[in-house]
Amino acid sequence: MSLDSLKTRLPEYARDLKLNLGSLATEPGLTEQQRAGTFIATALASREASVIQAIVAEFAPRLSPEALEAAKAAAAIMGMNNIYYRFVHMMAHEPSANYKTMPAKLRMNVIGKPGVDKADFELWSLAVSAVNGCGMCVESHEAQLRKHGFSEEQVQQAVRIAAVVHAVAAVIDGEKALSGEIAAAAE
């Protein structure tokens, strides 16, 4: 499956997603590795099998084996961190809560040694954190990216990729559910 076949699966009401998917795949602003890794990491975060397959088929050939593993690692580690740090953030207003000062006691070694440029890994982590809705992680990774010299436009581009990939996955998942519902009603 390719990006074109993924776009073909989108219904007409999601035409804007088709257009955005195509334009973001080639939009300048990020390096090829940054763009491809962002697509792959956010596809994995979407948890929709056909979206993952199509995006990996399209973008994995554009990455070194190390960069592909790092994009997958960003999705994996943020899947854990986004839950934990979203909880910490939500509990920060509780006067008796000390969660913010407690050590996480979760292994996160890949963040220190991701196997690719640290800035690229931060970008992928930011995009996955946006998909997973962890404000604390988004703020932290955005601050790191700014220290690495990323512009607001580059950060925005990664989040735009995350938004479109997530929306495409939701539409495809919804259409599958509706197809099953329609088939069940016809029986």
UniProtKB/TrEMBL annotation:
Keywords: Antioxidant, Disulfide bond, Oxidoreductase, Peroxidase, Redox-active center. InterPro entries: AhpD (IPR004674), AhpD-like (IPR029032), AhpD_core (IPR004675), CMD-like (IPR003779). It is an enzyme of class 1 (oxidoreductase). Residues 101-174 form the Carboxymuconolactone decarboxylase-like domain. The active site is at C134 (proton donor), C137 (cysteine sulfenic acid (-soh) intermediate). One of its GO terms (molecular function) is hydroperoxide reductase activity. One of its GO terms (biological process) is response to oxidative stress. The keyword Disulfide bond applies. Disulfide bonds join C134-C137. Gene3D superfamilies: AhpD-like. SUPFAM superfamilies: AhpD-like (SSF69118). Its EC number is 1.11.1.28. The keyword tRNA processing does not apply. It catalyses: N(6)-[(R)-dihydrolipoyl]-L-lysyl-[lipoyl-carrier protein] + a hydroperoxide = N(6)-[(R)-lipoyl]-L-lysyl-[lipoyl-carrier protein] + an alcohol + H2O. Antioxidant protein with alkyl hydroperoxidase activity. Required for the reduction of the AhpC active site cysteine residues and for the regeneration of the AhpC enzyme activity. HAMAP family: AhpD. Belongs to the AhpD family. This is Alkyl hydroperoxide reductase AhpD. The gene is ahpD.
